[in-house]
Amino acid sequence: MTSDGPHTLSDALRALAAGTTSSVELTEAALAAADRDDATLGVFVSRFPERARAAAKAADEARSGGTDLPLLGVPVGIKDIIATEDGETTGQSLVLDRAWGAGDAAVAARLRAAGAVVVGKTTTMEFALGSPDPTKPFPLPRNPWDATRWAGGSSSGSGAGVPAGMFLGALGTDTGASVRMPAALCGITGLKPTYGRVPKSGVVPLGYTLDCVGPMARSAEDCARLLAVLAGRAAADPASVDGPPVAPPAVPGDLAGLRVGYDPLHAVSGTARDPGLDALLDAALDTLRERGATVVPVALPLYGEVTAAAAVSILAEAAAYHAPDLRDRWEDYFASTRAGLGMAAFASAADYVQAQRVRRAGQEALGRLLLEVDVLVTPTVAAAAPPLEAAGDYVGSLFAGADLAYLTAYWNALGNPALTVPIGFSTAGLPLAMQVVGPAFGDEAVLRVGMAYQERTTWHLARPEPTAAPVDGPAAPAAGSTLPAPSAGALAMLDQADLGAGPAERTALAAALPVVRANAERLRDVPGTRYADPVTVFRA
Predict the structure, then answer these.
(1) Is the pTM higher than 0.90?
(2) Which of 10, 22, 23, 79 is labelled catalytic?
């Protein structure tokens, strides 16, 4: 955890087994890093130092007594929309009932049963949706590589805390980007598993048919170890499934015979693209070729349409969950959360059903492509971490069309496993990343590619300098400030939605109507969906 301690979760487990470190030492190093830097980086909503110390001591005693568990003695963080017995779940919101989710969520219970030491609950965007808001009484998550920049969302604290040394692994959730974006922007590795592979019972929902719980850590090997513990059906989650057993990670060896399809996604990233990204991607692909893989160009089918389907689905499913509180507690929500949820007023039930048809068409088209290649590679993000004040609104960004900064939501709509790994740094010295995607239940295949890549590179081991002092920074502005002027029809639709917005905010919200409608109408033009059955829960 310190500069001379274990670099990765897997290294720590090997050191624990060899007796060259202890859980108490690892945990104290993690707690010291949090004492030093958490006030600046905003990694934790709540910390449990004394419980962590007791758990670490118990882990060392268990190991000395011959107990062998997959994560015995490893300090971890858990995103604060996941229930734990250690303390209340806030969802980084004033709105969530503090009595919600008493006890451990399925994934938290599985980490604990595997011997992990929970050191705290990590910051998130409000309900995994709203952007940083300093007007609310919650920490502002910042990037450990530059504390004036955003850590990404919504698993912000989990992404920042790993490279900052506050834990060796963490849980995030991913509905459109929320494991992979912060992992990419903070220079670590993160996996969005196959939808349903990891149960989400005990997790505050954002998008019921999109949400995934995923591991975040330094390496693909670390993520493989975490997935092996997390995966498997839970009775409380009807969307969870028992896929093929997840084997513990093994040395992947060469990638001889592996067919890698590469889409740089130039058309959709547009002006958002970092000028140094393509050179880093080319170098990463060369490393895969050196390991024996064959790289071929591909075009991901229906990319814009499927991404629009993801956006409409998020709007509709989030609005369904939040509708009662939006009416009664509008001002208690973050401004950016209100902006995102307010956009749902412009998406109809018919739009939602059509979005599910498009998701099915996308699955079928991607399935045909995956008969030609084994895995796919794209950039994860088009650009490095933005300044905190430019963090913006994620749901709004999904409707950007040709200027997507986060190239991730496509995979939530389709359900495929997607792994992000760091590939180097921008000219500003900030991390950039690539995404490795496989077929449904191909989680181990993408982890194998990530491990093979990381055997030849060291980007995932890079460490930011500890922060020296708190950094002042302005708030991210509320989303929607650059949208077109509103129409009377849009204002009428907001009135019908019966939100709690005042006149000025209603005007800003109404400006989103043309953008939402343009994306919803785009869903109508997808071939083969006119009479298709919608699929609302993907069992891949």
Answers:
(1) yes
(2) 79
